[in-house]
Amino acid sequence: MFDLLNDCPGLAPWLEQTAELSGYLWDKGWAERNAGNLSIDVTDIITEQSACAADPLCRDLSFAYPQLAGRYFIVTGTGHRFRDLAHDAPHHACVLHLSDDGRVFHLVWGGEDDPDFRPTSEFPAHLRVHEFLRQRSAAERVVLHTHPTELIALTHLPEYQNEAALNRALWGAHPEVKVTVPRGVGLVPYTAPGTEALALATVAALRRDHPAAVWAMHGIVAVAREVMEAFDLVDTLNKAAQIILLRRGAGVASPGLNDAQLAELVRLFHLKD
Ligand SMILES: [Zn+2]
Is the model's pLDDT at 130 over the cut of 60? Predict the structure, then answer.
């Protein structure tokens, strides 16, 4: 294994942001036990090449991802806790390299002291999302999955189990939501974790020009150019969910901002909704 951090100095800031984000997710209560995962496409930062066949940690993927062949990703480990990653990235995250046919990967950094280290169990969803981003030549390279408590709670309520109603409620909670997420979020009906079906449903939601897909009764996947941009997106959405639930708890039945107030935001901030 070559000295990746030494050879690719551009990688360190991404790993530092990964650790910083991990601490925030734990502090927010969105990363219980080993919940949540993160991947970052760092292909343009890696300047060294390494041979897959030479690495004993070369592993098969369940599916082939030919459009991601040869790409490098920072990925959090399955079974690893964000609260540990916050101060020890080399043991709880890795940089991995997909083979030239997109069927296997091997570690080029991290996963230290664990011969069985594997990327997150939601890696299939991450790879499908990265595949989608590359198809679009998108600037987004960060894919974050976490469990924002109040946003999940909202998806348990029957009236928010459709995308339009969920977005209308989130926009109505606070003007920041319409300004930050003018096209709203995608809503993925409950689908078992770690499955290809969930991965494909997530991509379908993002394809509708949403920066995030809410997984009903589970969590959210957000895509962004920067690590903290992904965190801020989830934070804004979850704040809105908190407000909606507080309002309901106070016995107030209101949509919050009305249609005219939302239209005013579109006009003032030149939003594309
Ligand atoms: Zn999850």
Answer: yes
